[in-house]
Amino acid sequence: xxxxxxxxxxxxxxxxRLIRSSASKFGGRxxxxxxxxxxxxxxxxxxxxxxxxxxxxxIRIGHKPETGDAPFDYRIGLTKGxxxxxxxxxxxxxxxxxxxIEALVGRGNIGIERSIWNxxxxxxxxxxxxxxxxxxxxxxxxxxxxxVSNAAGASEARVLPANPRNEPLILVLPQMQGQxxxxxxxxxxxxxxxxxxxxxxxxxxxxxIRQADPEIGHGFPSADYIIRIRRTDLxxxxxxxxxxxxxxxxxxxxxxxxxxxxxxxxxxxxxxxASLVGSAIAHVETERATFDKGIGTxxxxxxxxxxLSGFSPDLFARGLEYMNTAYxxxxxxxxxxxxxxxxxxxxxRFGWASSGVDHLELARDxxxxxxxxxxxxxxxxxxxxxxxFWCNEAIESAWHYDRSLDALPFHPELAADAxxxxxxxxxxxxxxxxxxxxxxxxxxxxxxxxWSLGDVYYSRRDYANSIKWLSRMSDQSQAQRLxxxxxxRLGLDPTRHVKAVMSQQxxxxxxxxxxxxxxxDEEERIEYEQALLLAGLxx
Length: 539
Fold this sequence. Notes:
Helices cover about 50% and strands about 15% of the residues. The protein is α/β, with parallel strands linked by helices. Helix 13 (about 410-425) packs parallel to helix 15 (about 445-460).
């Protein structure tokens, strides 16, 4: 409008004509055309998608240099649900949800709510699609939807472009055995969704190829990982099998299997399998930074975060070196920036401060920049939450973890961090539930989550359970303080753990250590300090 009112109005009117003709063509109704938006209703999801695709195709045809009144590009959101009609107006939660999805998709793209995806999936062949888990508003839950691009060419995603990040390309190949189909959700489709959501959150590229040939996949040498999903019908329920194959894996292949007897078990089984295969890929990507010369900043970042999770000065130095190397090549990588924020927060938290370096200030700067660049990345939000926690902003930190866990409910690192944060603000029961569920579904590499579980139960004065979970850690070096405090409270001998603390930190002081913990409850702070002193640690 600022450049030319006449030109803008002409394009807007052209768009309204196109919208009305498309609605009429596919049996729909234009309810409202306020401003530059429109609300349409249809009798079926497939008719709505066909109209949306028709609108996009006609706009693309009309975009020619000599055409002065071509319609604007429209973002489109599709949902399904009951509505209330008041005269010519239509109201309902599905109307609000469609508006939310429309606001989240890219220019010219179509967003399709997850619950109706199966009804239109066959119509999207030839177009690039990706699952999205985003927040339209901070106070609302995450929205799950598929975004269908405006341009054809989904097969282009199978060719990994040359770029400094070198994110992995993953092919998902669903296969079926048996003629029956369970009532309710299809478990294979549930696994596909959770895998794609998990992978998208990691920044990985994913393509789903639906063919029955068991040998498919060999024709796509550019794929870094191939996942075959198979459902076998059993007399009582079904079995899901995942086969992960990659040229980067030491043994070339890994297999995961889960069985269930009811539809109610589908969500937990799907999340568990997606978490297992996703964690396996993340581990391989970490190893590539050490063994593979053809690496990018993605692999350096993966190795850096893996090293950082060891919580030791040597591993911290190694992880920071990986991430600083990546930062020189890719300074606008949001997850890398948030990871650097997390690294400096860890350095401050454990007292590994370098001379003249304000680690907490650096942590806040990196994490804030990451979220500005990628506000809907669940891991960037979580890293900012981690930093804010150590900045004594526990309530604000929990807000970030609430959003992150909505998007990635079984992400092991998020579960561990969220458990720590929630326990500090009085949500210990919720923290324990999240952590125990995470450990049960993904028991490998669980030290950090077990540590957080021990901390949660300690905050609840359940010292026996604190010791139980901490004792399951394969490396208990960072749990010695908590073990000493728990055993002191139970009247057990904490001497071994006290010696371990002093061996790791010869200048350890109870008051200094307690002072840097972000307690929000003064009673809890005093209790922890007294327990450490009771164990025999120096004041």
